Amino acid sequence: MRDYIRAAGGGLIIGLPLLFTMEVWFHGFILPAWKILALLAVGFAIVLGYNAIAGFRRERTVAELVVDATSAMGLGVVIAAVALVLLGRIDFSTSVRDAVGKIALEAIPIAFGASIATTQLGGDDGGRTSDTGPFERLLVGAGGALIFALNVAPTEEPMMLGIEASPWLLVAVVGASVGLTFALVFLADFGGRPRGGEGILEHPWSETIAAYAVSLLVSVLLLWAFGRTDGAGTASIVGMTVMLTVVASVGAAVARLLVGGHQEGGRA
């Protein structure tokens, strides 16, 4: 029971901002059901990956990982439903389609928070952190990018900024985003910096570029899911993606720090 209470708390910490975001309520109603299902499928896959790396229970068999991922998504659905009712966004006059859409979108970040609650908040073992490999860190980075960017993608600002930005400004934004995330993960010494290695993705710059590419893909996915790319030209889509990736790449960096490989004494 304590594990599930901790998971619920972690889910609220991550998902609470979106529960108060009007654009998410609106898109829960207007988005096609298949797009919502696609987002849920991506969310479940990343939650499953989180649980494989640092889930909220100790068991690590394949069946238990699937159970934990399903439990996290289920907790996300329950918490989102209760919260939306308490906030007055769902009542007896709300259609089933509207209610299901809102709950589904809100459940995604809550499920992420639930799945990494032990790593984030600490557990009986003092908040263990897995010694993760480069591909695991990229998976975690994708989840962090999705969590952060999901707070911004439904709004009008990324579209406006991307359309108005000049090509040279976009190049500068890309450089600043890559430089910022490199500094956060490898220079700021937050204590979660990944260890170095011999693999192609285990060098600081190669991992940073790969994580930025993953953040770009997450940004494109969200812009597509929320209809921002419908009817937009190539230049506008590129601009919107670059601007949204500013947020997504920072989310990816924070997530990689939280589960980065630690050396003894908490220093990397």
What would you say this structure looks like, in words?
With 268 residues, this protein is mostly helical. The protein has helices at residues 2-19, 22-30, 33-54, 62-86, 96-115, 117-121, 134-150, 157-164, 167-187, 204-225, 234-258. It starts with a helix and ends in a 10-residue tail after the last helix. The model is unreliable at 124-130 and 262-268 (pLDDT under 50).
Give the helix/strand layout.
Blueprint (H helix, E strand, L loop, with lengths): L1 H18 L2 H9 L2 H22 L7 H25 L9 H20 L1 H5 L12 H17 L6 H8 L2 H21 L16 H22 L8 H25 L10
Helix share of residues? Answer: over 70%
Ranges with pLDDT <50 over ≥5 residues? 124-130, 262-268
SSE string, helices as H and strands as E: HHHHHHHHHHH
Give the overall shape: globular
Distance between the termini: 34 Å
In terms of DSSP E residues, the strand content is under 5%
Number of helices: 11
Mean pLDDT: 83
Largest sheet: none
Number of domains: 2
Radius of gyration: 18 Å
Structural class: mainly alpha
What's a concise summary of this model?
72% of the residues lie in helices and 0% in strands. It has eleven helices and no strands.
